[in-house]
């Protein structure tokens, strides 16, 4: 059967396997029937501009968006290092957001233009189907009035049910600028925004139907009290950085709370104390997930102290009634006294492991010991230790099998690492700290086991070894040699730039973050790395206080289509969207 003879339903199913640029390149203007199907209301489009070339972004915005505007269901838009001016291209081509009258989800990342944010938010008011709105690292205002205008439009959106604000506020008090009551918002996530009780009271007053909240609680006064009952909240995910009294006050007023995920930094309670708190303040609780950080009081009798703590969680209330099991991890380091107690299965996405760590739990027959499926971000550390410590950790029963982001210091103990991380099939980004030039074989072993690895970041790489350029990977498309740590990577010399461009990991690189000694290396890298589409560069002979280097780059790249700009947060970085 020919393609044109397939029924519409099968063609729609086939369309789902293509991204928008490939879909239109393959089928647009093939014939009038296919064009009609591409423009049919049953065809839904999910647009993601977070990982796209400048050329493809321009084609979509110029040629295809007007055709599919009414069928767009979700839109992800980012101005980060990979797609630095995608939002500018989108709206400069006449895209009108409020024409997307079937848009349900809008996510914005790293948008720093105040005018663009205002334009987007104003248009959102006229989208009748918008239910999900997300802002990630969008630091765009200059004063309180800017934020007041922004937040009140968001709270005025008639159908909005899910709202995420992440890395967006310079201060918690700005949430008290909300003056519009939202009857629709039910799910609010603002993990990195610190709220005191005054802020929470105001927030609940203007979001009366809020059912789920994720935030950080930080009260300046140890005895601060929440003044009102919150009957709508049934699910709470909080990082609590205040006193026990404030935590009890919070729970006492959450009269219908059923699901609690809690992280504490400054509170230490044993099993009987947690039991009392739950019975008196959380009578309707069904799910209780806890991670409690604390310091051990004893240096010599640590294990005895841990045993005493765990025994307080081995009562019928914890084991039989609720089947809430806990585990405690502590360090053997003589200079550290920190420990963490958490419920099993582990319910948080970040996990820190080091080879000086010991663990004990209350679970029966260790049935939850390997239940760390929620862990997506792993920070794995190994310190120099004796054979006894290595033996204690070589049979670790904890396994993290769904790691997407890994921070790792080389060299590492192969046996311990691979027992802890049995598979890297989902690994997407890898941050490597190199202590010497003799661990590249271990890095290669990781690359061989990570078929989906996209991003590789090097830290503390002052002396670049030629072994770096012999690394092999079929999946890596992003290389980052600009570390945010205090021990930063060195500047690449001319021969090192040549070696990178000719290497297997450099040959197919799409996104490059790098320091160079000489500005001539920049156009050379762009010309020799044929798949490079975006680049962030720091040049040793650049003066961030003027645009002399930017003008020089425009002249020597001989391409009017390349966008070049300084990073607004770190002017020493020049961001380029090349192809």
TrEMBL record:
Gene3D superfamilies: Ribonuclease Inhibitor. It comes from Adineta steineri. Residues 1-49 form the F-box domain. It comes from the Eukaryota. This is F-box domain-containing protein. InterPro entries: F-box_dom, LRR_dom_sf.
